[in-house]
């Protein structure tokens, strides 16, 4: 997926909305910051997500980090390949490394999600 | 004149220029990693890695009663040190808890202490108290800001050092030190010490020589895959080797017998701070440091509670996913009745119980070369 066409949460999750299905992943910046990924904990299909609440966690040697739902809805698919092999997330966070697909409650994305350029500026500021 | 600024090691600019991710550590700006923790960890286990440890406290002691002063302040037996020998030791408080763990060197110019960066001020403070109480005829100098310290660690550390300082380490045994002339002119304390579980050396040299030395060692180690390594790998390496870290396995309320470093306490050497309390702890340490191997890959980090059934029997002091052993491992202080090897316990990892087996320490022991 084209990173420029995605929306981002301030906590580094990305969202791509297609009809009423949102694909959710973790940004390359977040993955590069974590490094040394060990294990990821993703919700089961059928789980109801609340926007802004934790839906799982990703752990690296350095730290463990909550994953926050950028949208509300029901989990309809989970990327088991990533859970089995985190290298996929490390190398392709915007494509094969997607995490979950969510059937959204509303096709209007939450207003706090950021466009690519705004997100880029935010992480550039964070890096300094 | 005092120029207030956050302390930086003489390699600070080098770290920044070479991708070091800088973090605050005990007030120092230090690289946690340059590439990934696991890559840097493997470099040390398989070849050689360099660490900037210039943030460690370095204090020198001179005068006719310098030895008596340190004997009173530390738990190990300073008098047993021969010239050029190094001793692992502890500064205990009156209650038998720990102020720091340290190394004491006996050099021809006097005694030298290396302490943790995070405890340097507490160590200086404690030493001053002991000095005033005992009125020892001795002086100390804090050399931390003028002396750089570089660790060269790994199975290829000796070959790497040899390429920069030919034959300098010949005959230098583990926990021994000597003074060499690096590059023919630079006075350097070279010791066979480290905090990784591998063979290796530490060099103390004038700060202005730090960058030249660091780059020479990196170049010399290149055939062995030398990498600059950050605090992240330093922690995973020392963890696998089960070396205690102050603030984790050691603290003001942890006694050395519980932490399995009672061997560094010499109760019969004479009076020293904490002796009476330590004598009691020797009989009843109250806890035992154990290794835990988790079934899950999730990491049981410091503070995670350890259970046997419904009862809490201890707490994790350090945990990580060990890069060499590829397992989620932890060290914990547990009730001695649950410390037997093979015992099955549970660790509460952020609200979820994970099964853990008590395993022997250290987790990792380097293969000994035939000499």
Layout of helices and strands:
The complex is a heterodimer of chains A (128) and B (371).
Chain A: E1 7-8, E2 13-18, E3 21-26, H1 28-34, E4 37-41, E5 48-49, E6 54-60, E7 64-68, E8 73-78, H2 80-84, H3 87-91, E9 100-104, H4 116-126
Antiparallel strand pairs in A: 1-2, 2-3, 3-9, 4-6, 5-8, 6-7, 8-9
Chain B: H1 12-17, E1 21-25, E2 28-33, H2 37-46, E3 49-52, E4 57-62, H3 66-73, E5 86-92, E6 98-107, E7 110-115, H4 120-134, E8 139-142, E9 147-153, H5 157-164, E10 177-182, E11 186-191, E12 200-206, H6 210-221, E13 227-229, H7 231-240, H8 275-283, E14 288-294, E15 305-308, E16 311-322, E17 327-334, E18 344-349, E19 352-359
Parallel strand pairs in B: 3-13
Antiparallel strand pairs in B: 1-2, 3-9, 4-7, 4-8, 5-6, 6-7, 9-12, 10-11, 11-12, 14-17, 14-19, 15-16, 15-18, 16-17, 18-19
Helix pairs in contact in B: 2-7, 3-4, 5-6
Description of the molecule:
The complex is a heterodimer of chains A (128) and B (371). Chain A is an alpha+beta fold and 128 residues long. Chain A has a single domain (3-127), classed as Beta Barrel (OB fold (Dihydrolipoamide Acetyltransferase, E2P)). Chain A has helices at 28-34, 80-84, 87-91, 116-126, and strands spanning 7-8, 13-18, 21-26, 37-41, 48-49, 54-60, 64-68, 73-78, 100-104. In chain A, strands 1-2-3-9-8-5 form a six-stranded antiparallel beta sheet. In chain A, strand 2 and strand 3 (21-26) form a beta hairpin. The N and C termini of chain A lie far apart (28 Å). The relative contact order of chain A is 0.25. By secondary structure, chain B is of the alpha+beta class. Chain B has two domains: 1-241 and 260-284, Gyrase A, domain 2; 286-359, Aminomethyltransferase beta-barrel domains (Elongation Factor Tu (Ef-tu), domain 3), CATH 2.40.30. Chain B is built from eight helices and 19 strands. Chain B has helices spanning 12-17, 37-46, 66-73, 120-134, 157-164, 210-221, 231-240, 275-283, and strands at residues 21-25, 28-33, 49-52, 57-62, 86-92, 98-107, 110-115, 139-142, 147-153, 177-182, 186-191, 200-206, 227-229, 288-294, 305-308, 311-322, 327-334, 344-349, 352-359. The N and C termini of chain B lie far apart (52 Å). The chains are: A alpha+beta (128), B alpha+beta (371). The A-B interface holds A 35-36, 38-39, 41, 57, 59, 61-62, 64 and B 32-33, 36-38, 232, 236, 296-299, 301, 320-321, 323, 328, 350.
């Amino acid at each position: 997926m084209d990173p420029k066409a995605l929306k981002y949460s301030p906590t580094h999750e990305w969202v791509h909305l297609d009809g009423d299905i949102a694909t959710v992943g973790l940004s390359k910046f977040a993955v590069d910051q974590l490094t040394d990924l060990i294990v990821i904990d993703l919700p089961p299909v059928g789980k109801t997500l609340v926007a802004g609440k934790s839906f799982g966690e990703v752990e690296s040697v350095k730290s463990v980090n909550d994953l926050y739902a950028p949208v509300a809805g029901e989990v309809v698919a989970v990327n088991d390949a990533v859970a089995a092999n985190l290298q996929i997330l490390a190398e392709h966070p915007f494509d094969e490394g997607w995490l979950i697909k969510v059937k959204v409650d509303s096709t209007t994305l939450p207003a706090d999600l950021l466009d690519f350029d705004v997100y880029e500026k935010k992480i550039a500021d964070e890096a300094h | 004149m005092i120029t207030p600024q956050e302390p930086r090691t003489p390699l600070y600019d080098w770290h920044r220029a070479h991708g070091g991710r800088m973090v605050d550590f005990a007030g120092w700006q230090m690289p946690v990693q340059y590439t990934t923790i696991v890559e840097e960890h493997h470099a040390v286990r398989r070849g050689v890695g360099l660490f900037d440890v210039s943030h460690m406290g370095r204090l020198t002691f001179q005068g006719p009663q310098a030895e008596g002063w340190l004997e009173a302040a530390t738990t190990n037996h300073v008098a047993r040190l021969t010239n050029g020998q190094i001793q692992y030791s502890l500064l205990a408080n009156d209650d038998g808890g720990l102020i720091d763990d340290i190394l004491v060197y006996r050099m021809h110019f006097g005694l030298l202490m290396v302490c943790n960066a995070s405890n340097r001020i507490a160590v200086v403070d404690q030493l001053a108290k002991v000095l005033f109480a005992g009125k020892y005829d001795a002086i100390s100098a804090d050399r931390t800001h003028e002396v750089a310290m570089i660790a060269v660690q790994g199975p290829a550390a000796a070959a790497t050092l040899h390429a920069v300082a030919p034959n300098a380490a010949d005959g230098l045994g583990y926990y021994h030190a000597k003074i060499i002339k690096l590059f023919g002119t630079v006075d350097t304390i070279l010791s066979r010490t480290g905090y990784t579980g591998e063979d290796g050396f530490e060099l103390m040299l004038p700060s202005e020589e730090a960058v030249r030395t660091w780059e020479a060692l990196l170049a010399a180690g290149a055939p062995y895959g030398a990498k600059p390594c950050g605090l992240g790998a330093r922690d995973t390496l020392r963890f696998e080797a089960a070396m205690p870290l102050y603030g984790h396995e050691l603290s003001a309320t942890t006694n050395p017998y519980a932490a399995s470093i009672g061997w560094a306490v010499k109760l019969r050497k004479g009076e020293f701070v904490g002796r009476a309390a330590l004598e009691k702890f020797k009989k009843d340490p109250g806890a035992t440091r154990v290794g835990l191997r988790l079934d899950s890959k999730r990491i049981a980090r410091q503070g995670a509670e350890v259970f046997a059934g419904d009862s809490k029997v201890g707490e994790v002091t350090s945990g990580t996913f060990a890069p060499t052993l590829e397992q989620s491992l932890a060290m914990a202080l547990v009730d001695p009745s649950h410390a037997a090897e093979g015992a099955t316990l549970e660790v509460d990892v952020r609200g979820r119980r994970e099964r853990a087996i008590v395993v022997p320490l250290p987790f990792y022991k380097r293969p000994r070369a035939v000499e």
